Amino acid sequence: MKLDVFLAERKIAVINRWFQLLTAEYPPETARFLQREKDRFVNPVGHTIFQAITGLFEALLSDKEETAKTATCLDDFLRIKAIQDFLPSQAVGGILYLKKIVEDELAGEIQAAHISPEEIRVFAGRVDRLALQAFDIYLACREKLYEIRVNEVKNRTARLLQKANLLEKV
């Protein structure tokens, strides 16, 4: 059996485990809420993360991780992490949980299915490339946030100076 077919058959279990590992990075009460509440309007963060990792997993299985859909899923996932001030290692590290699931938690089943170590290495390489792409996207999100914050400070300062009549009106 091929690894991609093996993982596709376990898609729901793998994605649910990945989601559990990602939400475990939050405080316990928040993690319980993110895992329990499925409504996209009540829990937009949990819903967005779940949808993003589902798209990423499907892209990895199709071996087309360099698609626009993949970039969109990564952006959705990482934008949340950037806004919440996760460290880059924490934000990108969430992608690598998928390797942990495959290599550790499914190891016995993979061995029983006679999947070659080479296939596992190839899949791990795809996850690594995805993590590198995630790092670039995360940094772009953080740069945009800092740019927005700097512009807001400039605008506030200019408005204060105008109110104090210390700035000439243009």
Main beta-sheet strand count, sense and barrel state:
none
How much is the radius of gyration in Å? 21 Å
Summed over residues and divided by their number, the pLDDT gives a mean of 90
In sequence order, what are the helices and strands, one letter per element? HHHHHHHH
State the end-to-end CA separation: 71 Å
Low-confidence stretches: none
Number of helices: 8
Which overall shape is indicated by the principal axes computed on the Cα atoms?
elongated
Q: Tell me the number of strands.
A: 0
Tally of domains: 1
Structural class: mainly alpha
Strand fraction: under 5%
Helix coverage percent:
over 70%
What key attributes describe this structure?
170 residues, 79% helix, mainly alpha
Structure, described:
- Helices cover 79% and strands 0% of the residues.
- By secondary structure, the protein is an all-alpha fold.
- The chain has one domain.
- The longest helix is centred in the last third of the chain and has 47 residues, at 117-163.
- The radius of gyration is 21 Å and the shape is elongated.
- The termini are far apart.
Quick overview:
This protein is mostly helical and 170 residues long. Helix content is 79%, strand content 0%. The model has no long low-confidence stretch (mean pLDDT 90).
List the topology elements.
Layout: H1 3-9, H2 11-23, H3 28-36, H4 44-62, H5 68-83, H6 88-105, H7 107-112, H8 117-163
